[in-house]
C-alpha cells in the first residue's frame, strides 16, 4: 500500500494560502486531499433545499478541478468521519493526517476521537491555525484573562498584529499530490436539491472597502462585500482579507476582528454552546414565546416594513444586511418578547454565512445577555431606524412592495406598548 499523508478539508475550501495544506504538501509523503460530508451534520438540516450544502458542493467542484490540474484529485466522502478514516486506513498506508483547527464543540470532540484512533495506529495527527488571525489564548488581558469587551480586545489584537511577522502560505504553488481519480457525489446523492440561490462573487473592489465606513449602514445600497459566506467556508483566507483592509478601512478591519473576538468567546466560555446565556442571570427572563407572532416574524408579515424586508431578504437569498440583522433581532426579542434562542436557531437554518460564534454573539448582543452587549433598555424603534438608514425606502420597496397597500398587515404590536412591556419584563427578571 502507498504511504500517504491525508489532508482533510473542512472550513478551508481553497488551495491558496491554506496553512494545513501547505504543511501537508511540503512534507515527505504524497498528499491525498479529502472532504467528508458528515451525516451527523447533514441529517439535522430539515430543509433539503439548503443552500449551504449546495455552496459547499460547488466550492468542492472548483477545488477538485484545481487539484486535478496539479496531478491529484479530491476524494469526497459521505460518511461518519471516524468510519471514513478507518476505511481509508484499509486502502492506504496513512502516515499522517493533517487538517486546520475547528473551534466548535462538535468539531473538537470529533477531532479528539480521530486523534486517539490515529495515535493507536501510529498515525500522526496535526492541526493548524488557519481560519482566524489570533485564537484561544493568543490575545489576553494584562491579568491573563480573556477579554469580554470588544474595544480593549481589538486594541490588543492590533498591537499584537503590528508586532507579529506575517506571511501567507503559497500552498497553491505546491503539487505533491497522491495519484487517484474519484467520482464526486451529486447533490441528490447527498439527499439535497438545488435552491436557485445565486451565490455572491469573491470579486469586490478596494473602493468598496474605502467607502465602507460611510455606506455600510444603508441596506438599500450595494455597499458591503458579501464575502462572509466565503469566509465561513474558507473559500478565501482571513489573511488575504486583513491584508486588503490594512490602510483602507479601519471599520472593515474591525469587522474581521469581531469574528476573532467571537471565536475567542466561544472557546473560553463553552456554556454558550449549550444554549445558556453568556450572562446567566438573563436566563431568568419570562418570555411570551407566541408561536403565531414568531411565524409572522419569520415570514416577514409583522406590519413593520423594515423588519419584514429583512426577513424576506433572508428567506429568499440566505443573506441579510448587518444593520437589518440588528433591527430584526431587536424586534423579535424586545417587541415580541420571544426568546433570542428561537431567532438564533432560525438564522442558523437560513443564513448562508451561518457561523455559531458570530450568530450566537449577535443574538446575545441584541438580547443584552451577551458579552459587550447593547444594554437591555436599548430598544430599536423600527420607524426611526427606517428614517435613518432607508430614508428613500429603496430597501423596503425592493422586498415589501405592497407596504402601502390595504392588504399589508397592520403592525403586530404597538412600538411604545412593546417598549414598556419589555422593560418591565427585564426589570422583573434582573431584579
From TrEMBL:
**Residue ranges annotated for the Photolyase/cryptochrome alpha/beta domain, each copy included:** 3-133
PROSITE patterns attached to this UniProt entry: DNA_PHOTOLYASES_1_1 (PS00394), DNA_PHOTOLYASES_1_2 (PS00691), PHR_CRY_ALPHA_BETA (PS51645)
Query: Which Pfam families does the protein's record reference?
Result: DNA_photolyase, FAD_binding_7
E.C. numbers: 4.1.99.3
Q: Keywords assigned by UniProt? A: Chromophore, FAD, Flavoprotein, Lyase, Membrane, Transmembrane, Transmembrane helix
Q: Where are the transmembrane segments?
A: 20-42
Which organism is the protein's source? Answer: Aquirufa salirivi
Question: Would the keyword Glycosyltransferase be found if you checked this record's keyword annotation?
Answer: no
- Classification of source organism: Bacteria, Pseudomonadati, Bacteroidota, Cytophagia, Cytophagales
Which InterPro entries does this one have? Answer: Crypto/Photolyase_FAD-like_sf, Crypto/Photolyase_N_sf, Cryptochr/Photolyase_FAD-bd, Cryptochrome/DNA_photolyase_1, DNA_photolyase_1_CS_C, DNA_photolyase_N, Rossmann-like_a/b/a_fold
State the similarity comment.
Answer: Belongs to the DNA photolyase family.
Protein name in the entry:
Deoxyribodipyrimidine photo-lyase
What does the record give under GO molecular function?
deoxyribodipyrimidine photo-lyase activity
- Tell me which cofactor or cofactors this protein depends on: (6R)-5,10-methylene-5,6,7,8-tetrahydrofolate; FAD
Uppermost EC category:
lyase
Amino acid at each position: 500500500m502507498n504511504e500517504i499523508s491525508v489532508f482533510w478539508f473542512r472550513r478551508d475550501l481553497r488551495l491558496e494560502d491554506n496553512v494545513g495544506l501547505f504543511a501537508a504538501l511540503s512534507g515527505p509523503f504524497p498528499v491525498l486531499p479529502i472532504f467528508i460530508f458528515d451525516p451527523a451534520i447533514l441529517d439535522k438540516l430539515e430543509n433539503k433545499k439548503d443552500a449551504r450544502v449546495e455552496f459547499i458542493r460547488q466550492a468542492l467542484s472548483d477545488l477538485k478541478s484545481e487539484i486535478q490540474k496539479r496531478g491529484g484529485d479530491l476524494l469526497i466522502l459521505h460518511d461518519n468521519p471516524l468510519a471514513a478514516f478507518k476505511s481509508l486506513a484499509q486502502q492506504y498506508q496513512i502516515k499522517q493526517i493533517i487538517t486546520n483547527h475547528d473551534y466548535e464543540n462538535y468539531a473538537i470532540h470529533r477531532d479528539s476521537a480521530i486523534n486517539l484512533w490515529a495515535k493507536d495506529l501510529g498515525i500522526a495527527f496535526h492541526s493548524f491555525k488557519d481560519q482566524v488571525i489570533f485564537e484561544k489564548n493568543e490575545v489576553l488581558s494584562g491579568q491573563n484573562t480573556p477579554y469580554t469587551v470588544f474595544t480593549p480586545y481589538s486594541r490588543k489584537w492590533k498591537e499584537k498584529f503590528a508586532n507579529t511577522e506575517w506571511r501567507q502560505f503559497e500552498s497553491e504553488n505546491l503539487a505533491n499530490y497522491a495519484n487517484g481519480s474519484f467520482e464526486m457525489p451529486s447533490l441528490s446523492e447527498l439527499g439535497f436539491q438545488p435552491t436557485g440561490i445565486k451565490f455572491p462573487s469573491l470579486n469586490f473592489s478596494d473602493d468598496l472597502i474605502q467607502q465602507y465606513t460611510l455606506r455600510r449602514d444603508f441596506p438599500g445600497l450595494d455597499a458591503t462585500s458579501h464575502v462572509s459566506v466565503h469566509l465561513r467556508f474558507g473559500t478565501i483566507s482571513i489573511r488575504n482579507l486583513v491584508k486588503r483592509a490594512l490602510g483602507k478601512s479601519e471599520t472593515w478591519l474591525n469587522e474581521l476582528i469581531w469574528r476573532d473576538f467571537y471565536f475567542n468567546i466561544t472557546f473560553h466560555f463553552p456554556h454558550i454552546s449549550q444554549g445558556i446565556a453568556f450572562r446567566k442571570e438573563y436566563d431568568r427572563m419570562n418570555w411570551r414565546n407566541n408561536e403565531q407572532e414568531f411565524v409572522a416574524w419569520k415570514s416577514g408579515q409583522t406590519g413593520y416594513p423594515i423588519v419584514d424586508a429583512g426577513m424576506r431578504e433572508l428567506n429568499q437569498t440566505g443573506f441579510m444586511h448587518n444593520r437589518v440583522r440588528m433591527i430584526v433581532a431587536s424586534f423579535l426579542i424586545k417587541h415580541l418578547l420571544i426568546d433570542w434562542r428561537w431567532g438564533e436557531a432560525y438564522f442558523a437554518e437560513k443564513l448562508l454565512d451561518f457561523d455559531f460564534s458570530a450568530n450566537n454573539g449577535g443574538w446575545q448582543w441584541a438580547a443584552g445577555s451577551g458579552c459587550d452587549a447593547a444594554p437591555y433598555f436599548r430598544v430599536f424603534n423600527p420607524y426611526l431606524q427606517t428614517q435613518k438608514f432607508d430614508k428613500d425606502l429603496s430597501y423596503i420597496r425592493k422586498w415589501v412592495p405592497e407596504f402601502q397597500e390595504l392588504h399589508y398587515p397592520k403592525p403586530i404590536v404597538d412600538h411604545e406598548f412593546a417598549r414598556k412591556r419589555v422593560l418591565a419584563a427585564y426589570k422583573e427578571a434582573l431584579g
